[in-house]
Write a structure and sequence with these properties.
The structure is a homodimer. Chain A is α/β, with parallel strands linked by helices. Chain A is built from 14 helices and twelve strands.
Chain lengths: 337, 337
Amino acid sequence: MVKITDVARRAGVSPSTVSYVLSGKRSISAATRQRVEASIRELGYRPHAGARALASSRSNVVALVMPLRSGVHVPVQMQFAASVVTTARAHDHDVLLLTQEEGEDGLRRVADSALVDALVVMDVQLHDARIPLLRSLGLPSVLIGFPAEAAGLTCIDLDFAATGAECVSHLARLGHRCVALLGSPPEVYARDTGFARRTAAGFTAAARRYGMTSTVLPCAPGAPAARETVDRLLREHPDLTGVVVHNEPALGPLLEAFQRAGLRVPEDLSVVALCPDELAEGAAVPLTSVALPAAEVGERSVELLMAKLAGREVPDATLLPPQLTERASTAPRAHVN
Amino acid sequence: MVKITDVARRAGVSPSTVSYVLSGKRSISAATRQRVEASIRELGYRPHAGARALASSRSNVVALVMPLRSGVHVPVQMQFAASVVTTARAHDHDVLLLTQEEGEDGLRRVADSALVDALVVMDVQLHDARIPLLRSLGLPSVLIGFPAEAAGLTCIDLDFAATGAECVSHLARLGHRCVALLGSPPEVYARDTGFARRTAAGFTAAARRYGMTSTVLPCAPGAPAARETVDRLLREHPDLTGVVVHNEPALGPLLEAFQRAGLRVPEDLSVVALCPDELAEGAAVPLTSVALPAAEVGERSVELLMAKLAGREVPDATLLPPQLTERASTAPRAHVN
DNA sequence: ACCCGTTATCGAAGCGCTTCGACTCGAAGG
DNA sequence: CCTTCGAGTCGAAGCGCTTCGATAACGGGT
């Protein structure tokens, strides 16, 4: 194994000089730098990660805590992970993969043993047991999603309020006047899940701004519930021409229910979904949708982390603007008067 | 930060004794061990990973090289990754996530810098550029899949020959006498992709053993190609009653083509697929299938790695027995004579 | 000509842990 | 009773790197 003293000897300098060439923490004359760089190249030198971590108390590794119990939408997670790894590498860091199951002990372990310098925590719950731990750990961290008590923590997520509003804007531009948001099951609203409420708020406020009639209806999973929801919706709002669906599992059943109710998409009803692009593209009628920008979230997370590691201040909350992709499920309102 | 000297002082022993308690590399009296363990617990001591790696030249980290460009069947990869992480943790190791894109340089980097002790490489191609590198790296590694030149490398995969045979056995038990294997596109066979050939070999040999009529037909992707393949198959083998499909993208089109040809599954035709369980379950008629046992592959990979790290000998090739899951797409042959 | 501030480099002191040889002590063997 | 041996413990020497003074050389201001 070639070490820093080998490089130094060959370049005719001291080890510390080599170190400074590598880190750029002190000025080095051009001539010396070149000799050192040549020496490094010729010997194929790589600093020993452990030695470096020990001496500098920086491991240049970040932990990525992922829910690996497959279940939630997996390709999206994958995209996110890929983006985290790539961005981390661009900042000369590596990524240690932790599962959600390792839980608080896992976090404490990698933090206390100085295995990692920072943490990216996915799938943060509203009342996540890890929150107090993260506060006390003394390592920079970024959370994907917003817990109830987010003060002092760096969080990032899609801007759900803006998303609700953007969907309404899109429908408004197409001439729709009466719209509904089909949201999460009642339990989710009851538990005060941040993103559900925020979407609804953005949706409602935008509808008011446009002078549209709007409703928000929770929707339980399963085909019967979907049919029931749709029946009620159509009964109470006979002139409904646009819906926004923010409920992935209910999406299929709802679409079927609309069809069964005699509504064609998009001729009679425009539909906007909040779901991964894959799902939107795969539907019978490809759906106009807003997706969670996984790659961007990953990239921004790491950048926030790097900023924190560099001692820079970063905002507590980062909300990413929604991007609506137009597909076949939305169309101008037919003026049938 | 609490360090080994703190633990030692509190337990009234020397640091080396603490180290030996932790590693078990020398015998320690029960009394001392207990005092040390108490001290560790009370102080919440965690060895510094970097220091440990430096002193012992073992990082207790394994690299997992994953194709993160989503594309291939993602949930399966996820399952595999989860299993690798979990198993590694059970052996007191962590997992560093690398992307395929980092390629050879990435491997060299983590190896030379002693960031990791061993490598798990997924998605190994037949003529993979990383093979020679892996040979020369001097780190234990396990490959998922078999490259052309596998001698001296530890590889693991589903036993495709046994899989082909198992599918035939299943059909034979149901009374089928004339079966076909619809395989990969011609290119794949031409490139001599190991698993395609092996499946075909197992399939054919088993059919012969059972005295069945059998054919192997490659199948290009796309609906028109599928229809053509099916037409030809039925023309040449009018008494065909069972097929095995080893071609994920062609699976859907083939099923449609059979339907269009007037064959009902499973009444007229029994179908066995080689594909992820998810896909098999999601089909219109749930498919009897053999899946790649991702979780088991992950677990076994890590165990092979640990064995190698411990200096034990391991077999070059590990072939996992297929497990066929019976679903609705296979049925006893109707005896219409 | 003198002092000062840069710039460029070096030497040495650790970072926290493991490991090797050496040492002690009590029990077993002659 | 003295040797021998193994079990149990300690001290010290690194592992390969970073970083903190210290030092020297060299202008520039006055």
